[in-house]
Amino acid sequence: MGTLSYVNVFAKDIEALSVFYRDLFGFKEIPEIRSPIFRGLDTGRSCIGFNALDAYELLKLDDYSDTKGCKFLLNIDVDSKEEVDEYVPKALASGATLIKEPYTTYYNWYQSVLLDPEGNVFRINHMM
């Protein structure tokens, strides 16, 4: 059985986008893997990597570099409904855009849907 180690995000500005998630959620940077085209954050359960657009060529993905539209959805879990409500204004103050106010889903999670400063979709969740 495999395990998820990283979710990597292609970013126009890896420094700014990694700092957005680091500062908002308190994730720790992994300095050992820092490079001119990569930043990594330890989320406690897995990691988020931020690849510069140069990585498309490095990974032989030039033909797949169309970045229009929603290509993934990051889910950040927190410990309570109150934390979801606390993180949303912090995210907005840090440059996020609110797509959907906090609400309870049909599968009984409490969450909010946002866009990070580069327009990537992420949710702040509490799984009740």
Describe the 3D structure:
- This protein has 3 helices and 8 strands.
- The protein has helices spanning 14-25, 55-58, 81-93, and strands at 6-11, 28-29, 38-42, 47-52, 73-77, 97-104, 109-115, 121-127.
- Strands 1-4-3-2 form a 4-stranded mixed beta sheet, covered by helices on one side.
- β7 (109-115) and β8 form a beta hairpin.
Radius of gyration: 15 Å
What oligomerization state is this entry in?
single chain
Q: How are the strands of the biggest sheet laid out side by side? A: 1-4-3-2
The shape, in one word, is globular
Poorly predicted spans: none
Termini gap: 27 Å
Taking the sheet with the most strands, its summary is: 4 strands, mixed
Instruction: Please report the number of helical segments.
Output: 3
Report mean pLDDT, rounded to a whole number.
91
Q: What class do helices, strands and sheet pairing give?
A: alpha/beta
Helix content: 10-25%
Order of helices and strands: EHEEEHEHEEE
What proportion strand? 35-45%
The number of distinct β-strands equals 8
List keywords for this structure.
single chain; about 130 residues; alpha/beta; four-stranded mixed beta sheet; 8 strands; globular
Strands, helices and their partners?
Blueprint: E1 6-11, H1 14-25, E2 28-29, E3 38-42, E4 47-52, H2 55-58, E5 73-77, H3 81-93, E6 97-104, E7 109-115, E8 121-127
Parallel strand pairs: 1-4, 5-8
Antiparallel strand pairs: 2-3, 3-4, 6-7, 7-8
Summarize the structure.
The chain is an alpha/beta fold and 128 residues long. Helix content is 23%, strand content 36%.
